[in-house]
Write a structure and sequence with these properties.
Elements (H helix, E strand, L loop, with lengths): L23 H24 L6 H14 L3 E2 L12 E4 L2 E3 L13 E10 L2 E10 L5 H19 L7 H14 L3 E2 L5 E3 L6 E5 L16 E4 L2 E3 L5 E3 L6 E3 L5 E3 L2 E6 L2 E4 L4
Antiparallel strand pairs: 1-4, 2-4, 3-12, 4-5, 6-10, 7-8, 7-9, 9-14, 10-13, 11-12, 14-15
Helix pairs in contact: 1-2, 3-4
This protein binds magnesium ion (2 copies).
Length: 265
Amino acid sequence: MERKLVPPFIPNGYNPGGVTIKSSHELELMREAGRVVATTLQTLAESARAGMKTKELDIIASNQIKRLGAKPSFKGYRGFPATICVSVNNEIVHGIPGDRVLRDGDIVSLDAGAIVGGFQADSALTIGIGKLSAQCQELISTTKQALETGIAAARVGARVGDLSSAIQDFVERRGYSVVREYVGHGIGRELHEDPQIPNYGLPNRGPLLRRGMTIAIEPMVNIGGWRTRCLEDNWTVVTADGSLSAHFEDTIAITDDGAEILTRL
Ligand code: MG
Ligand code: MG
């Protein structure tokens, strides 16, 4: 009997559309969507500074995505009210941009999605405002490396659990925890498709990765425990223990040569 490893946690907004294999034309649309997302995140990273309200970042993202001829993935998705998610310090994901003012020493996770020709790309990164503590710098670099570790494990014939366990091992070896209630996902016409891509698990378990699958890998790493809580706005997810959290995400395509990262310039 298969050990039931993963509790039936469903990430906010998860809408399984089945595993889909993309044609070369569909991959080309996703590459274009990926370029839009990467360009937008780069602009945001260059623009964010102390004294700025998080909603100013949302306006920059909205203008840029429009200017590049794409549509934002998140605005209106299950009622999400903004173009991007901005999650500060102990906020993990799904922070709603608003009047919060960024301060020196904050860590800020920026998550953006774009649609080109009906196909989506989704990416996130965590940046620092001004001078960061060594603790924050290490959290950010560990989370970024956790994403790289997951991407390196994503190849034809691997199972989702190979990638999940690689990320979990990497993170926990460094004394951090990975969030469990929210996971990566397949992506294509839908923002969230099958399979789910947890950041924890066991090798050699879960769905097989096949050529032409496109997935978003997105480790969320906490300094403290892995448990989460959702704020009264029904979106913002925070660490249950108030510890700091970082988030990196890329959309990749599974190819015969390994992972093709669609959300980098
Ligand atoms: Mg995202
Ligand atoms: Mg995602």
